[in-house]
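ok trying again, last paste got cut off:
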Amino acid sequence: MPLSPKRAEIADAALRIIGSRGIAALTTATLAAELGVSSGAPFRHFASLDDILEAAAQRTEEILRSTSPDPGLPPLVRLEQLFLARAETVGQHAGVARLIFSEQFALALPPAAAARLVGLVADTRATILELLRAAAAEGQLREDLSPADLLPVVMGSLQHLVFLSAMGPRIAKVPSPRKVFHTLASLLAPARPRRS
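nice, full thing came through this time. structure:
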C-alpha cells in the first residue's frame, strides 16, 4: 500500500538525515528539525521511530521501482534505461544508497524493513539477469561469457556509480552514467569479425 503524502514526506526527511549524517543521527529531534515541526508531530502519523524506518525502506522501494523501464522495449534498451535511471535516482538520494549498501544500516533497521531492502536488491539482480538473458537470446551479447557471468559486471558498475554519488562532495568527480554504460555495452557486445 503506497504511503500517504504526509507519511512519504516524513520518510523522505528520514532518508535525507540518513544520507547526510547516518542512521545514528536519525532521532526524534533531528527529524522534527528537518521537517520544521515539533518533536511530537511525526508521531501523529507513526507509532515509533522503527515505524518511520520501515516507511523509509518502503519509500526507498517506491523510489527505485519508479525507475523501471517500459517492458515493451528491446532488452538492451531496457537495461540501459534501468541502469541510467537507477544511477541518477539513487545518486540524488544518498539515504537510499546508504540503506541499500550498508550492512550496518541493515542491522539497525527493523527486520521487516531490512527484508524489504534485501528483496529489492534481489529483484534488481533478477531483472538485470533476465534482460541479459533476453539480449543473449537475440544475439546481442558476447557468446564467450554467460549472462550469469556478466551479471556481476553490470551490477558492480551500477553499484560503483551509486556509491560514488552517495559519497557526495568527498569525491572529486563522479563518472557520467551514460559514459559508463556505453563502456559497459562495448564490453557486453558480441565480438566483431576480424578483417582479413
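cool. The chain has one domain: 5-188. The domain at 5-188 is CATH 1.10.357.10 (Tetracycline Repressor; domain 2).
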